[in-house]
Write a structure and sequence with these properties.
Elements (H helix, E strand, L loop, with lengths): L14 H10 L8 E11 L2 E12 L8 H9 L6 H5 L5 E6 L7 E9 H14 L1 E2 L8 E2 L9 E3 L18 E7 L12 E4 L2 E4 L1 H6 L16 E7 L3 E8 L5 E8 L9 E9 L2 E9 L13 E7 L6 E8 L4 E4 L3 E2 L3 E9 L5 E9 L6 H21 L1 H4 E2 L2 H13 L5 E4 L20 E5 L13 E6 L11 E5 L2 E5 L11 E6 L1 H15 L4 E3 L1
Parallel strand pairs: 2-11, 23-24, 24-25
Antiparallel strand pairs: 1-2, 1-4, 3-4, 5-6, 7-8, 8-11, 9-10, 12-13, 13-16, 14-15, 14-17, 17-18, 17-19, 20-21, 22-28, 23-26, 25-29, 26-27, 27-28
Helix pairs in contact: 1-4
Length: 520
Amino acid sequence: MAKTEGEPTPAVPDAAAAARNLIDRLSPENGERAVLSAIYQCDGAELTLRHASLLIGPPEVADVPWGRWRSDSTARLHPRFDELSQLPPDILASDAPTADGTELVAGRASLDVEDARRLLAEVLERGEVPAVGPLPGARAPLAAPDAFLHVFPRLWTPASRLVAQANRPLRGFLLPRVHRLDELLVKDRWTVEGVTVFDGAWSALGIAMPYEGHRFDPPAHGLLVGRLERRAWFDDVKGDGDFNLYELHVGLEPDRIDIADLEVELEEWADGELANSRRLLLGELGLGARAGEQRVLVALPTLGRGLAHEARLYDREGTLLDRTQRSKLVERIISTMRVAAENGQTALHTFTAGEKVVPAVTERLDRLDRLEQDYRDLMEQGLSERIVRDRNSAITAVHNHLAGAPGEIWIMDPYFGAASGDWDVLRGLNVSVKILTGRPGKSPPSAFKNVEVRRWNGPGKSPPFHDRSYLWEGRGLSVGTSPSGFGIRDTRVDRLRQTEAERMRADFQHYWNSGDFLPA
């Protein structure tokens, strides 16, 4: 074991302010919680931090161990789900076993965000992690972070191994150990709170530690502090079983982002070379009614067997939200079992599931031609929601978008309310709606108590806008005609980018307060 004696204890001037600044950079929200997951190494009579994460996220992260969190998030049961169900959220493994006998203390503790700030301040000021929950205090000889990181649990890196069960990407920073400790292998079974847990570090703490029979590069040495993504991420990625489709299960918080404002990119690689790459805006696919959906399946055509896949998820502004490791789909599993016979001898029995098939180049070319048509079909399926030709389809398309809008909706339409049917796009909406319209517009019917209308009363015949815009925080729609024109002529329904929507919202607010529009 590498000696830790004489390691400097870092000191940061005004550590409390530094901790506040670092945590505030993560933009935590009211009600969010933090979880400390840590592995400490016994060094004589004291403990020293080896691997740890301090993650901030939705309050539910504090309720269950990380392996259970991942199972609940993906709707795919963890292999040891029954064991994890017996564990409380705050846990301690005081005798976490290793292959060489090195003593470890490991555990998980939940805390408030303000407590996380205080904990980080002690780490920065004193070089110590205070006791929290069942976890004892420990020395933490850490250096200051040198970059703000984007960590993806599905992308195998030293930092991501510290959050291997978080399932969502995160933004944060790593405080590395001043000196690394020798690498070690942990045992594959831990006793945690009286429960025997297979791969306890991974399942209970979310820290991927190499163990006998499963060796890989170790996690980063130090403390990773971060906040989980709250907009959208990949819940799961897998094949359809027939190697025709690659299934991207997108998780999201619908009050923060609309599925129509996301883009996915899928790459297929053959022997380290790019064979196919596609990037699709999900708002251009046939998504239908989607308000409140927390998990959406996007199934994309592929070139078939034998290829490695890598997927990325972006928002409409081009920000990378999540990405996956480049990997192949499983085609064949070969399992060998040693069976004892009555005579004391043993025999090996091999079982095979699936088959490995190497496609010919002609098959790849045929698949590529079909792929082009498959993607065209995907895009055409979405045309009915983007170019609408009858009244009911147009009302449904606009209403589906508005139903997913968080908070107040603002509408600029110089003819809205002139016809009684205009109000149909707003039926069933419970949020406040404000409308700026022209002189022909009328006040809302009595049933629409959540709607406030102001009509143009300024100089000239028409208000200072022509396009029909539906706006809410961060997003919006541009629609080719007023609802009274739906079905009379083809209408295009188009999502606005955030920068466009913010500019138009500023215009709306200016017009609303200008005095040129009066209550209808």
